[in-house]
Amino acid sequence: QVQLVESGGGLVQAGGSLRLSCAASGSIFGLNVMGWYRQAPGKQRVLVAGISIAGSANYADSVKGRFTISRDNAKNTVYLEMNSLKPEDTAVYYCNADLLDSGVIRRHWGQGTQVTVSS
């Protein structure tokens, strides 16, 4: 069983910062791309940022210049540093991990952590 445990969510004022962490454990052989998605009430889940095992990152246009994704492969952990937070960043943030097994990619999700940005 693959487990993704997220932490770091909470309530912050606009302009503030938060750092999210997600540690993967269990049957994680073949761990590949990891990333963060978010979902606001009544909205679809969308990609925030993703990072390859080699460290190549991509970001949603809405967070470029404000968020930074990183990973520690030795710890099987991905991070999301969020700066200059805006009320529109309010959402449940989900950690994602893709595992590669004999050419087949399996996508796994964390339970989600709430980020609330007040104006």
Short synopsis of the structure:
The mean pLDDT is 96.
Protein traits:
119 residues; mainly beta; seven-stranded mixed β-sheet; four-stranded antiparallel β-sheet
Which secondary structure elements does this structure contain, and how are they paired or packed?
Elements: E1 2-7, E2 10-13, E3 18-26, E4 31-39, E5 46-51, E6 57-59, E7 67-72, E8 77-82, E9 91-101, E10 104-109, E11 113-118
Parallel strand pairs: 2-11
Antiparallel strand pairs: 1-3, 3-8, 4-5, 4-9, 5-6, 7-8, 9-10, 9-11
Mean pLDDT value: 96
* Cα end-to-end separation: 40 Å
* Shape field: elongated
Provide the helix percentage.
under 10%
**Runs with pLDDT <50, length 5+?**
none
What sequence of helices (H) and strands (E) makes up the elements?
EEEEEEEEEEE
- Number of helical segments with 4 or more residues: 0
Q: Count of DSSP E strands?
A: 11
| Content-based structural category | mainly beta
Q: Biggest sheet, in brief?
A: 7 strands, mixed
Question: Approximately how much beta-strand content do the residues carry?
Answer: over 45%
* Rg, Cα atoms, Å: 14 Å
Polypeptide structure, described:
The protein is mostly beta strands and 119 residues long. The chain has strands at 2-7, 10-13, 18-26, 31-39, 46-51, 57-59, 67-72, 77-82, 91-101, 104-109, 113-118. Strands 2, 4, 5, 6, 9, 10 and 11 form a 7-stranded mixed beta sheet that branches. A 4-stranded antiparallel beta sheet has the order 1-3-8-7, with no helix packed on it. The chain is elongated. The mean pLDDT is 96.
